[in-house]
Design goal:
Layout (H helix, E strand, L loop, with lengths): L5 H11 L4 E5 L4 E3 H17 L7 E5 L4 H13 L2 E5 L5 H10 L2 E6 L1 H4 L12 E4 L5 E3 L3 H15 L18 E6 L9 E5 H14 L7 E4 L6 H13 L3 E4 L6 H11 L3 E4 L1 H16 L2 H6 L3 H18 L6 E4 L6 H9 L4 E3 L1 E2 L6 E4 L12 E2 L3 E7 L6 E7 L5 E2 L3 H7 L6 E9 L5 E6 L4 E2 L5 E2 L1 H8 L5 E8 L5 E7 L1 H6 L4 H18 L8 E4 L22
Parallel strand pairs: 1-11, 3-4, 3-5, 5-6, 10-11, 12-13, 13-14, 26-27
Antiparallel strand pairs: 1-2, 6-7, 8-9, 9-20, 15-16, 16-17, 18-19, 19-21, 21-22, 23-24, 25-26
Length: 549
């Protein structure tokens, strides 16, 4: 158990950074750390008059915003349990989460509330509008009147840096239940404690250098552990100024926002970097003229430096590094970033670890690796039955308490000795550098007893012309099929119709199989004309596309 306390970190940041800007909604108003502290007190006064107790669950649904962040912090510093819900979930899934989590209250916006079946929300004491804090439903007017009196009597006198504070919540207490969509079906509720969060936070303080006033752009979903930990909780604890991008982060919007905010630290998923590389960098490097220039060492150095500077400026020109995580990274793209000495690193984690498992800064990062185990965590590689590969098991302060109301799944995930079985295949160097090789569940064992890892084939296929993204699956007879979502923009530019794209895919199939050993060869390519459904971290939901055997 950690000796540090999560609530103390939040309290100290509000007190020390009282007059500094804390939150801004992109294009909107800014509130200071003192303003956030006042709003937190208002919510906590309402919790008391509504009868909310420590350990009660509060659901939170909406896009990234200052109000979302305030409701989150008010809940966890009160000692209640936050249930952040991804806004991309279907209404029926949202209703299931609200019920399964035993939520007493729901914070959301009018656009999301309108989509929900109110009959399925009967257990809730009330539903509040994140935009004006007024109730959508629930007989709570009297309680809210009482909360105003309570606020003025007990909270308002403490609204200054010298007196502001919260009652401590013990580290073993539950902080959050996170329902992620995952890639294998409807998710389980991951129970994360204050200890899990303070372990992540303490490590980040020692290894990622942010300072009061540093600008941060929050565009990853805050309901996901990666975004929540490093675009809200950690930078807030350091006194940073966080701007929330409360719209779908298109490339054009990100370019505009990066230029305006000039964030000090960038958190992103691989897809953002991969799009830049495949849409802009690779086509430029592939021209005959550029190929000739790259053969001259001095010119190659100049060209790479200009590309690096342009990429640095794309992210606002002020960042200390880009941390890439949440999904596997294309090897070709990563190799290029390493070649041009771009400031990037890969992290690895799971919601079940809140989320940190491995990390190393950009200067020490090694190609293809995800760093070494973070402090307060240990790892071992265990044999996978019927395979020469090994699964990564981890244990330590970051590991979740378990899955909410699901002891069977908890027992499958965490053994009696406390080891979390990650489900990821990995290797490690003698120095402890970890390399993630794929998922145990996606591994295909063919009739000859050979192990096939679809991710390896997909990485090669995604580098071929007109391929946007792909998914390799086993079908009847043990053959491999590659489902491909074409690069629509590239196909349109080349004037290709569906038949033309299919013809190009047959060429790609031949090229792919020439590069692969016989047991890994793909029998056919099937066009997928709609983009694959994905999780918030842009992993394809494989379970939706499983072929019938």
């Amino acid at each position: 158990m950690m000796k540090e306390n999560f609530v103390a970190y939040m309290e100290n940041s509000i007190r020390k950074n009282w007059k500094l800007p804390a939150f801004t909604d992109y294009g909107g108003a800014t509130v200071s750390y003192g303003d956030v502290g006042r709003r937190i007190y208002k919510i906590q006064a309402a919790y008391r008059t509504l009868g909310i107790k420590r350990g009660d669950t509060i659901a939170l649904l909406g896009r990234n915003s200052a109000d979302w962040a305030t409701a989150y912090l008010a809940t966890v510093t009160y000692g209640a349990v936050i249930v952040p819900i991804l806004p991309d979930f279907r209404p029926s899934d949202i209703e299931t989460i609200v019920k399964h989590s035993d939520a007493k209250l729901l914070f959301t916006t009018s656009s999301y509330f309108e989509r929900l079946d109110k009959k399925q929300l009967g257990q809730l004491r009330a539903v509040f509008n994140l935009e004006d804090w007024k109730p959508f439903m629930g007989d709570v007017e009297k309680a809210l009147e009482e909360s105003e009196k309570l606020y003025k009597k007990e909270y308002e006198p403490k609204l200054n840096p010298g007196k502001y504070g919260f009652e401590r919540v013990p580290n073993e207490a539950l902080l959050s239940i996170v329902y992620t969509s995952g890639t294998t079906g409807f998710s389980k509720g991951v129970m994360l404690t204050h200890n899990n969060f303070i372990s992540n936070l303490t490590y980040s303080w020692k290894n990622v250098y942010l300072y009061p006033g540093d600008p941060i752009l929050s565009f990853l979903p805050l309901a996901h552990s990666f975004g929540c930990a490093f675009e809200l909780v950690f930078p807030f604890s350091r006194g940073c100024h966080i701007t929330f991008l409360n719209k779908v982060p298109s490339t054009s919007l990100l370019i505009e926002a990066f230029a305006k905010i000039k964030p000090r630290l960038i958190l992103t998923v691989p897809l953002v970097i991969e799009k830049i590389y495949y849409k802009q960098v690779r086509p430029m490097l592939a021209t005959p003229k550029m190929q000739r220039l790259l053969k001259v060492p001095l010119l190659r150095h100049i060209i790479y430096r200009k590309i690096r500077d342009k990429l640095h400026n794309f992210f606002g020109g002020n960042m200390i590094q880009v941390i890439i995580g949440g999904a596997s990274f294309n090897p070709e793209v990563e190799a290029f970033l390493k070649k041009i000495h771009f400031r990037y690193t890969l992290g690895y984690g799971m919601t079940e670890c809140a989320p940190l498992i491995t990390y190393v800064g950009w200067k020490e990062h090694q190609l293809g690796s995800v760093g070494h185990m973070v402090d307060y965590m240990e790892a071992k590689l265990m044999p996978v039955p019927g395979s020469e590969h090994r699964e990564l098991w981890v244990r330590g302060e970051n590991v979740m308490k378990g899955y909410y109301k699901n002891p069977e799944e908890t027992a499958r995930a965490i053994d009696r000795d406390g080891w979390l079985h990650t489900g990821d295949l990995a290797t490690a160097t003698p120095e402890g550098i970890i390399y993630i090789r794929g998922r145990c569940k996606t591994m295909i064992l063919n009739s000859s007893g050979q192990n096939i890892y679809p991710e390896e084939i997909e990485a090669r296929l995604n580098n071929l012309p007109y391929v946007g993204e792909s998914l390799v699956l086993e079908e009847a007879g043990g053959k491999l099929c590659a489902m491909v979502y074409p690069d629509q923009a590239e196909a349109k530019k080349a004037g290709l119709n569906d038949q033309g794209v299919l013809a190009k895919m047959q060429e790609n199939l031949a090229e792919l199989n020439r590069e692969l050993p016989e047991f890994m060869r793909v029998s056919r390519i099937e066009l997928q004309m709609k983009e694959f459904e994905k999780t918030p971290t842009n992993k394809i939901k494989r379970y939706l596309y499983v072929k019938q055997q």
